[in-house]
Amino acid sequence: MKLQQIAAGVAALVATALFTPAANAADPIVIAHRGASGYLPEHTLAAYELAVRMGADYIEPDLQLTSDGQLVAMHDTTLTRTTNAATLFAPRNGGYRVSDFTLAEIKTLTVKPVGSSKPSYPGFTPTNPELRVPTFQEVIDLAKQQSAAAGRTVGIYPEAKQADPAMEDAILSTLRANGYGGSGDKLFVQSFSDQTIRSIDAKSESLGMDLSLVLLGGATTDASGAAAIQMTGGVFALKDIASFADGIGLSLSTAITADYIAQAHALGLKVHGWTFNQADPTLAAAQFERYLDMGMDGLFANFPDLAVEAVDAHRGAVPETATWMTMIVGFGGVGLLLRRRKPAARAGIAHA
Ligand code: G3P
Ligand code: CA
């Protein structure tokens, strides 16, 4: 190996060391948390569509079951916070549980803005402007329509909100009916219940489906000091979780560190964080960058446009493989140039 080639190789390695953060996810994803819920009423088709237009990789429907066994996109177990149910219906069983209302009844409701969201977003006209509670099927339909329109696959990230075998079965049958179940699908299924994830893992396997499953909880350590996840059911070591899940979804209010994420990665687990809810672009950018630098693989964001910007900036700061190859070839080119110029310089005694 010539001196110039060695120099080129060393230069590439130095550049790698200089520009690569201590840890970084290969390709972080943006998950629109309940749609673009910082801008439009959560879990509406309009909020999901806006999220896709903003560049989100995945849209997230939380799922509840109606009294007639239909999956609808809704976070709460009750209808009161996000809809006008209390103005249209009398209470049932003392309240407004989703599970006490039929899909037809829920379809008469209007979803109202909560938090920072508004009924509309400037310059955006949704394909379906009605602010209704969508079914899971309608969310899937939207993801497929938007995939075709955007020329890229829009992923879905459904959450089983109830630890209920009926909900597991409904999710699996809906996914199957829509052609999901291959290992390359842009799909994660999530739950706060380890029992639900274990059960979906077993059921999907028996159905010949290969699903990516994510367990939600908080970052912690177990008695031995190893990375673990805190759930209502207790503390589970990540090495045990890795036997049935593909990733973990962590609350940002828990002890997430680069070392924790590295331990998860070593076990083959993806790490996604929730919920990024900073509306101020500067503060949001700093928060996203902090977690991306730790190596976080996915961001549940209420303002997906800000998350997309942060991921793009992060990708720019961390050249991808192709970029590295270009750099290395570039450094090699410089080496070759030096090699050619050297005899010329020697011959250029004439310049002296
Ligand atoms: O699913 C991740 C995150 O959404 C969990 O929080 O309560 O918004 O469903 P929640
Ligand atoms: Ca959720």
Return Rg in Å.
Answer: 25 Å
Instruction: Give the helix tally.
Output: 12
Oligomer status: single chain
Category from helices, strands and their pairing: alpha/beta
Note poorly predicted spans: 1-24, 322-352
Number of strands: 13
Q: List the helices and strands in order.
A: HEHEEEHHHEEHEHEEEHEHEHEHH
The biggest sheet amounts to: 10 strands, mixed
Distance between the termini: 31 Å
- Average pLDDT metric: 88
**DSSP strand content:** 15-25%
| Helix content bin | 40-55%
> What form results from the Cα inertia axes?
globular
The set of bound ligands, ions and cofactors reads: SN-glycerol-3-phosphate, calcium ion
How would you sum up this structure, described in words?
The chain is an alpha/beta fold. 41% of the residues lie in helices and 16% in strands. It has 12 helices and 13 strands. Strands 1, 2, 5, 7, 8, 9, 10, 11, 12 and 13 form a 10-stranded mixed sheet that branches. Helix 10 links the parallel strand 12 and strand 13 (298-301). Helix 1 (3-19) runs antiparallel to helix 12 (321-347) and helix 2 (45-53) runs parallel beside helix 5 (136-150). The longest helix has 27 residues, at 321-347. The protein is globular and about 55 Å long. The two termini are 31 Å apart. Residues 1-24 and 322-352 have low confidence and may be disordered. The structure holds SN-glycerol-3-phosphate (G3P) and calcium ion. Calcium ion is lined by residues 60, 62, 159.
